[in-house]
């Protein structure tokens, strides 16, 4: 019998890519002049290495001994430990991603197959990040359509002042719909679920969100995302019942119990947690199946980097993809080269799809020279 593999080492490094020109994210009033990435590597007793990325791994230092010597494939056990760390400290879920990548390499199979998926082909929607003028936004939508994307998500500003309030955001959407007609599904991110630390603007209330939903209806919007504060479960349930538009959210929800509450309250039509930021692949595979059992949709948020996009793609494919996956892509400010700088090559989307293939684990390779040049810790 071959010896059971064990976790021999956990290595964490931090990297920063300067952004010139800066990235002006719709949800952030401060221009971003750098993009940070945390890389987690888990090495097993046979020398294989699993790779994960996402949040900063704050609070993980000193807890390595809880994993060293353990079988890397004991996902439920590792999930429990990480959930306790997440309660006391930060979001250390990139380690869960690295463990799944390692498990795939041990098994010689892609992660989506380990999860029980039937296909490694994932549909994508182009996810914008920059607040553009109506004309420029329509140009970008036309470009995304030409690139093969069948759907696109358009941002409102977090406090509504970016274009002059939500009515100006609606006017930008109208310009897009006038340009592309019915050739592309459109979604809207209202950016009301959470704030950056320095943004003290209050989120919309129920009546505000309902007014926006009714204004969106003539534009055939597929879903409106984060229209209320993340904790307003009762408000979201009421909005879902009253709104002509599907309600999506949950991208920054932190714990499994909160997802159970959302599902039990039927507060959302579509759940959008990100495996790189919350619950990892282990926890979100459970959430995905719980949502589907309740007749709700599931498709992850994926605004970290290409490693996070890839991990969420495996999660979605492995649990039964029935919706598009978020593909952050808004050039030139948010190019694939910027987003995927830790990787040897950016993820290649073809005709609006991502083919995950049969490579073991996530099937990714790092750009070691770029990582060495951008390392900050």
From TrEMBL:
Cross-referenced SMART domains: MR_MLE (SM00922)
Pfam families assigned to the protein according to its UniProt record, in alphabetical order: MR_MLE_C (PF13378)
Residue span, Mandelate racemase/muconate lactonizing enzyme C-terminal domain: 134-246
SUPFAM superfamilies linked: Enolase C-terminal domain-like, Enolase N-terminal domain-like
Organism: Paralimibaculum aggregatum
Cofactors that this protein relies on: Mg(2+)
Keywords: Magnesium, Metal-binding
Protein name: Mandelate racemase/muconate lactonizing enzyme family protein
């Amino acid at each position: 019998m071959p010896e059971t593999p064990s976790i021999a080492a956990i290595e964490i490094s931090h990297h920063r890519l300067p952004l010139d020109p800066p990235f002006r994210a719709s949800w952030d009033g401060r221009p971003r002049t750098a993009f940070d990435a945390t890389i987690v590597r888990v090495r097993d007793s046979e020398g294989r290495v699993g790779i994960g990325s996402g949040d900063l791994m704050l609070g993980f230092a000193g807890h390595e001994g809880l994993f060293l010597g353990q079988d890397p494939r004991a996902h439920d056990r590792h999930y429990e430990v990480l959930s306790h760390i997440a309660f006391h400290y930060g979001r250390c879920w990139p380690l869960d991603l690295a463990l799944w990548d390692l498990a795939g390499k041990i098994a010689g199979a892609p992660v989506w197959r380990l999860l029980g998926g039937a296909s490694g082909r994932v549909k994508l929607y182009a996810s914008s990040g920059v607040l553009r003028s109506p004309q420029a936004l329509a140009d970008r939508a036309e470009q995304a359509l030409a690139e093969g994307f069948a759907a696109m998500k358009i941002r409102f500003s977090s406090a509504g002042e970016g274009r002059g309030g939500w009515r100006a955001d609606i006017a930008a959407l109208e310009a897009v719909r006038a340009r592309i007609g019915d050739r592309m599904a459109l979604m809207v991110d209202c950016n009301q679920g959470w704030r950056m630390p320095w943004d003290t603007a209050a989120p919309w209330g129920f009546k505000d969100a309902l007014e926006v939903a009714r204004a969106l209806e003539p534009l055939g919007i597929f879903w409106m995302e984060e229209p209320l504060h993340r904790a307003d479960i009762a408000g979201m349930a009421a909005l879902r019942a009253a709104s002509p538009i599907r309600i999506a959210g949950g991208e920054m929800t932190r714990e499994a119990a909160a997802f159970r509450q959302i599902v039990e309250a039927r507060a959302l039509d579509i759940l959008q947690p990100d495996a790189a930021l919350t619950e990892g692949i282990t926890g979100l595979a459970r959430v995905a199946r719980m949502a589907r059992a309740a007749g709700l949709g599931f498709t992850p948020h994926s605004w970290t980097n290409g490693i996070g996009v890839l991990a969420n793609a495996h999660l979605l494919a492995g649990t039964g993809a029935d919706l598009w996956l978020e593909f952050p892509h808004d050039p030139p400010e948010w190019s694939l080269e910027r987003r995927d700088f830790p990787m040897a090559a950016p993820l290649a989307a073809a005709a609006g799809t991502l083919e995950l293939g049969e490579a073991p684990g996530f099937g990714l390779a790092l750009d070691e020279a770029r990582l060495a040049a951008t390392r900050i810790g």
